[in-house]
Design goal:
252 residues; alpha+beta; 5-stranded mixed sheet; 8 helices; globular
């Protein structure tokens, strides 16, 4: 009895950036993503968001902002090699400075993923409600230096954030939405680099109708499923040949 393996998900950033491309370019980008080897990631940064953004649990509602050295140590502990460490620290430095300047703090919030017609559940909401200059904001972080969200992809993401957060829950109607990206790396002192945050609010972009946004995502996932099925089908004959060679070698 065979079971159907769980489909490999597309990261939300890649889903959005590919969904807004011309239809003729989407398949090649999906193949490129499927076959890519990612040399480093931003997991060390993500694991430090609580300290960077001063996200406070219910038991410590007035906790003071962690020192930069504490946040830096957290990033260092989770980085696997020097290049990954510096890539993550350059973003963390910029975000920490931004949080200090704009008095950023937050509280954890669990948001339900949004079920789409494509059969996939997606979430573009960081699991916290932030206070930025005293105003409530829910954000999506895009720390990438390449393959980041384009202008059209940001429009799609903010449209889906609106649908996921505000439409089902009127309590969030007045909460701002933002995408936080980061500028190019610049050297601030000898060997110390920083990437400054770029704060893009939903008020700066015309939101897409949900039906249009959902169709864009559904189209990408439809192509993604076909691509993965073709890859699985191509691997099965090779695996069968290998097993047959082992069997024939054993009985020869």
């Amino acid at each position: 009895m065979s079971s159907c393996p769980k489909m490999r998900r597309l990261p939300e950033t890649d889903l959005a950036r590919i969904a807004v491309l011309p239809s003729g370019n989407q398949a090649s980008q999906l193949v490129k993503f499927r076959d890519s080897i990612i040399p480093l990631n931003y997991n060390p940064l993500r694991k430090a968001y609580t300290g960077l953004l001063n996200i406070q649990g219910p038991l410590l509602p007035d906790a003071t902002r962690p020192k930069w050295s504490t946040v830096r140590d957290a990033v260092e502990q989770n980085a696997r090699f020097p290049k990954e460490l510096e890539t993550n620290l350059s973003v963390a430095r910029g975000l920490y400075k931004f949080a200090e300047m704009h008095d950023v703090s937050g509280r954890p919030e669990t948001f339900m993923k949004m079920q789409l017609r494509a059969g996939e559940a997606v979430s573009f909401l960081h699991p916290a409600v932030l206070s930025v200059d005293g105003a409530p904001v829910v954000a999506f972080f895009d720390p990438r230096d390449s393959n980041k969200l384009s202008i059209k992809a940001r429009q799609l993401v903010l449209s889906l954030m609106h649908e996921q957060l505000r439409v089902p829950d009127p309590d969030f109607a007045q909460v701002g939405l933002a995408i936080i990206q980061f500028g190019p790396k610049r050297e601030v002192s000898d060997g110390i680099f920083v990437r400054e945050p770029i704060f893009i609010r939903d008020t700066e972009i015309d939101l897409l109708p949900f039906e249009e946004a959902e169709e864009m995502v559904a189209s990408v996932y439809s192509q993604w499923r076909v691509l993965l099925r073709k890859g699985s089908a191509a691997r099965r004959p090779a695996a069968n040949d290998h097993q047959r060679d082992l069997f024939e070698g054993a009985v020869a």
